[in-house]
Amino acid sequence: MQSAFNYLTEEQQKQVEQAVVDAEGKTSCEIVPVLATSSGRYDRPEDVVGLWLTIITGLCFWYFFPHTQGQAGDWGVMPVFVELILAALAMVIAFILGAIAGSRIGWLRRLFTPHQQMQDEVAARAREIFFDKRVHHTEGGTGILIYISLFEHVAIALADQAVIDKLGQPFLDQICQKLTSGLQTGKPAETICEVIREIGEQAATPLPRAADDQNELQDVLVLID
């Protein structure tokens, strides 16, 4: 699974941070870009994959090692209780391996996790970061959070009410659409920088930077593993 810390090179991270500096030079908005490896725990895939692998293992035992009654005088047949113990042990191991695969392999986790659940988890995590990083606590109420969750392939833009009043919610929705479309092309750094620059340009007139404007939040790319 792609880690937020390895998603962009060090040079690309600096490009994103410079884009924030340039954008905030035009507007009073405080822009905080965040890259997260994942936004939820998602236990269901572990159980589902483990259960399926257990069932498959049980069927394989039944098909390839059918129990046959030994002939008179034949002491080479394995006792039934030993066969049951081995089968149970194999199925336990299969469940554990399936659970590990369900927790480690990204496409398996996405396959067995409902899309709506992932969207809800990303939205909840974005709101949490919005408050934890004090994006909502700027003096003019002009904070904007760009939150990208890599495992779920979901991007969210959150903003204070002052930004929504001036730029409108459709603008934030458009930002999300550009992020998801651009990230699918395999050019993450260019996409994030372009979106940040667009925010700076669009907010420059309705939310201009004042002469005494203070930089209240660090101009850094926040990485969350």
TrEMBL record:
- Answer whether the UniProt record assigns the keyword Transmembrane helix to this protein: yes
Name the UniProt key words of this record, in alphabetical order. Membrane, Transmembrane, Transmembrane helix
What domain of life does the native source organism fall in?
Answer: Bacteria
* Tagged with keyword Membrane: yes
Q: Where are the transmembrane segments?
A: 48-65, 77-101
Q: What is this protein called?
A: TPM domain-containing protein
Q: Which organism is it from?
A: Gimesia panareensis
